[in-house]
Write a structure and sequence with these properties.
The structure holds two protein chains of two kinds.
Chain A: E1 3-5, E2 9-13, E3 18-25, E4 32-37, E5 44-49, E6 53-57, E7 60-65, E8 70-75, E9 84-93, E10 96-101, E11 105-110
Parallel strand pairs in A: 2-11
Antiparallel strand pairs in A: 1-3, 3-8, 4-5, 4-9, 6-7, 7-8, 9-10, 9-11
Chain B: E1 5-7, E2 10-13, E3 19-24, E4 31-38, E5 42-50, E6 53-57, E7 64-68, E8 74-78, E9 87-94, E10 105-106, E11 110-114
Parallel strand pairs in B: 2-11
Antiparallel strand pairs in B: 1-3, 3-8, 4-5, 4-9, 5-6, 7-8, 9-10, 9-11
Classes of the chains: A mainly beta, B mainly beta.
Chain lengths: 111, 115
């Protein structure tokens, strides 16, 4: 099965940088997704990592280490609108592409 | 706007009742996924349909069923409802059956309240 751990909540200041960590255990690795979800709204796709290293996309970057079962999402120049939950997800197992989601990290950006 | 539509947005019903949630995928997408999101459980995969056929099953109760129609829209049927079924139900779609890295696009969700 899959096990995904993320911190439950984080708080950061507008304009700062925040790193949201995700550790996972999965039988067969087929990549890792990050989604953003504002309260009561649909999750929206942020990034997908399948190889080790850092992928940068504007203010958001995502890092993966397959050997450590670890990923992080880095948010730079935080804005108030970045207050949301950030969900880490991995496919359900070897040969499966259905996603198992972590419970999400609720990020609050304060002035 | 992801292009995935869901109706209704809100649904209030009583225990023991049956409801149907509807989802239309993005134009051209062949897969539809259903998820349940409650406060304590997070986003849980229920079931996937691909081009009209059931593709994968997750934590879906026997009281729940789904189908995908020839026009690719999907319906999730929830019966003998219990208080614990109160949750946000999301539908997502993807282009094919869900290959590596294939992004799922989520609809706005249906908020179900069982009283």
């Amino acid at each position: 099965g899959q096990n995904i751990d993320q911190p439950t909540e984080m708080t950061a200041t507008e304009g700062a940088i925040v790193q949201i960590n995700c550790t996972y255990q999965t039988s067969g690795f087929n990549g890792l997704f990050w989604y953003q979800q504002h309260a009561g709204e649909a999750p929206t796709f942020l990034s997908y990592n399948v190889l080790d290293g850092l992928e940068e996309k504007g203010r958001f970057s995502s890092f993966l280490s397959r050997s450590k079962g670890y990923s992080y999402l880095l948010l730079k120049e935080l804005q108030m609108k970045d207050s949301a939950s950030y969900l880490c997800a991995v496919p359900a197992g070897a040969g499966s592409y259905q996603l198992t989601f972590g419970k999400g990290t609720k990020l609050s950006v304060i002035p | 706007d992801s292009g995935v539509t869901q109706t209704p947005k809100h649904l209030i019903t009583a225990t023991g009742q049956r409801v149907t949630l509807r989802c239309s995928p993005r134009s051209g997408d062949l897969s539809v996924y259903w998820y349940q999101q409650s406060l304590d459980q997070g986003l849980q995969f229920l079931i996937q349909y691909y081009n009209g056929e059931e593709r994968a099953k997750g934590n879906i109760l026997e009281r729940f069923s789904a189908q995908q129609f020839p026009d690719l829209h999907s319906e999730l049927n929830l019966s003998s409802l219990e208080l614990g079924d109160s949750a946000l139900y999301f539908c997502a779609s993807s282009v094919t059956s869900g290959g590596p890295g294939e992004t799922q696009y989520f609809g706005p969700g249906t908020r179900l309240l069982v009283l």
